[in-house]
Write a structure and sequence with these properties.
By secondary structure, the protein is of the alpha+beta class. About 40% of the residues lie in helices and about 10% in strands.
């Protein structure tokens, strides 16, 4: 009897446990393959408050698998063997894989949304151009990192955009005896040049350096850096429409040529080092490491990320960021500052596998990243936990979070806080950059050695300006050619342009510079610049009008409302 009663009680206990067990397993499991190596060993999506919130809102349990190398070879092997169908989502880290579409391994995102009446996808889609960024009038991959150009005069955060500079605190205070007034007196490029000369005279080996990773989101290190200085001369971005309506590369503009000549002048005067052009910005770059650890540099032009990874002092040797001055005859209000990621679409690419039974859940998870409030969470965390509003209404780090950013390893920080890591912020949407200007005083100090809050030291690059991003306004969208012949032509032109830059910068004199420039123009035409202009011009006028009104209006309203503007 007791045994029977025990069995009954056990059965009742099991039955009572079933709802709780079911409740704990309601989430849809999403198996995600990331084609890059694991960045945060020991961390799983859902461990920290940010990714856990994202899972909860989408009703999913995201389970990542990682490649062991970063060359995509494992992905191609999986494609050849069909193993790719074991996953719900495949994320190709910074690489467009046409085989996924050609072999029909992936589903079109817009088709998934339409079949399931998922309106959020259409509301928050970073761009509405299926034909421009997909194939067959469909969008097969989830796009990321879509930002705006801004005018320098319209954005305080633009002062920390790629058209910026900072200076080595130790060099200027210790060796030159600079004060705040000296620093603030830099109003022109001539003033900046004078500061570089003073540093050189004081024995600094690298008086003026171009920071690695200056515009990696726009193109890559090989030619991205020169556009930083180009902004000071009012130069257009990489691809731009001319007055006659033809869309071309910006090396043809007089402003960009003038910017390159200024760099050449800095080299000829001994302020700019050849070592700039060996930089990769990686943790393995010994040239950068040597310069940074020796503090043997003065002025840094461009973003300092690639240098700060080597700085054992956490970046405290660099002072507040300041906008790179406009060139003589160029009005500051006419200078366009490219957002670090500009209008770059597709880094990384997220594809939903057609064989998945969880396509809608996957689309919902990815679409949530595009919502304005999620943009804030991914980059800055939750108010009260990660950030707080100061007496001026500006968002600031909590003291605990700030201390952890300074003291914890990247892996430990991500495990605890979750904000701004490769699995959350990499999927920020078109206006992720709007929320990327959170002021903070981590690692910054004034000339008297005190940590200070700087209006110009946001977490990155730009805020919403008066102009709106659309194809080819900055030109970055052109890198996503889906046609193999067009992609090959672009790649060849890109290579010719990249290889010509150092030759022009390191020209021995003005005549040599002009000869190098003429050679560049000749080689670009021989490589097929005329054909590329036809392609760019056709695409520009086909899609430009479609984005600027309806699609952007939704985002602008949402962004301004969330920012309290």
């Amino acid at each position: 009897m007791k045994k029977a009663l025990a069995l009954v009680m056990a059965l009742i206990l099991v039955l009572c446990m079933v709802p709780a067990m079911a409740e704990g397993t309601e989430k849809t499991v999403l198996k995600v393959y990331w084609s890059g190596v694991e960045t945060y060993p020991g961390w799983e999506y859902g461990d920290d408050p940010i990714s856990a919130f994202f899972e909860e809102q989408a009703g999913v349990d995201v389970q990542y698998s990682y490649a062991t190398t970063s060359d995509h070879q494992e992905l191609y092997t999986m494609l050849a063997g069909g193993e790719i169908e074991d996953y719900d989502v495949v994320i190709t880290n910074g690489k467009y894989i046409p085989q996924l579409i050609d072999e029909e391994y992936v589903a079109a995102l817009d088709v998934i949304a339409t079949e399931n009446n998922y309106e959020d996808f259409w509301t928050y889609l970073p761009n509405g151009l299926m034909a421009a960024h997909g194939q067959n009038d469909h969008l097969y991959y989830f796009t990321t990192m879509y930002g705006d150009d801004v005018l320098l005069a319209d954005s305080k955060a633009g002062l920390k955009a790629p058209a910026n500079y900072t200076y080595n605190y130790d060099v200027f205070t210790t060796k030159l005896g600079w004060t705040d007034e000296d620093y603030e007196a830099i109003k022109t490029l001539a003033d900046l040049e004078a500061a570089a000369k003073a540093a050189k005279d004081a024995g600094i080996t690298y008086p003026m350096v171009i920071a690695p990773n200056t515009l990696t989101g726009l193109l890559n290190n090989s030619i991205g850096w020169y556009m930083t200085v180009g902004a000071s001369f009012g130069a257009p971005q990489y691809v731009y429409p001319q007055e006659d309506g033809t869309v071309t590369f910006n090396y043809k503009s007089a402003e960009m040529k003038a910017a390159l000549k200024w760099l050449n002048d800095m080299y000829l005067k001994g302020y700019l080092s050849v070592d700039n052009f060996t930089w990769t910005g990686s943790a393995n770059d010994q040239t950068v490491k040597q310069i940074v650890m020796a503090h043997d540099y003065a002025i840094i032009i461009g973003h300092t990320w690639g240098m700060s990874i080597h700085d054992l002092d956490g970046g405290t040797n660099t002072a507040t960021y300041k906008g790179l001055p406009a060139a003589e005859g160029v009005a500051a209000e006419d200078v366009k500052v490219a957002c670090l990621n500009s209008s770059n679409i597709g880094t990384p690419f997220a594809w939903i596998i057609d064989a998945s039974e969880n396509k809608l859940a996957a689309l919902k998870w990815l679409t949530n990243y595009q919502k304005p409030e999620f943009q804030v969470y991914a980059l800055h965390g939750f108010e009260g936990q990660h950030i707080y509003l100061d007496e001026y209404g500006a968002k600031q780090y909590t003291q605990e979070r700030m201390d952890d950013k300074n003291n914890l390893t990247a892996v430990d920080y991500v495990k605890k806080w979750g904000d701004y890591n490769n699995h959350t912020s990499s999927f920020r949407g078109r206006y992720g950059q709007v929320y990327y200007d959170l002021p903070n005083y981590t690692g910054l100090r004034s000339l008297d050695g005190q940590l200070v809050l700087s209006d110009y030291a946001g977490d990155a690059d730009c805020e919403l300006g008066k102009t709106h991003a659309f194809p080819f306004k900055t030109g970055a969208l052109t890198v996503n050619f889906t046609d193999p012949d067009e992609a090959a032509l672009y790649s060849n032109l890109h290579k010719v342009l990249a290889e010509a830059m150092p030759t022009m910068i390191f020209a021995a004199d003005e005549a040599a510079f002009e000869a190098a420039y003429e050679t560049l123009c000749k080689n670009m035409e021989q490589t097929g610049m005329g054909e590329m202009e036809e392609i760019l011009t056709e695409r520009y006028w086909k899609y430009a009008d479609q984005l600027n009104e309806e699609i952007n209006a939704k985002w602008d309203a949402a962004a301004r409302a969330n920012m309290g503007k």
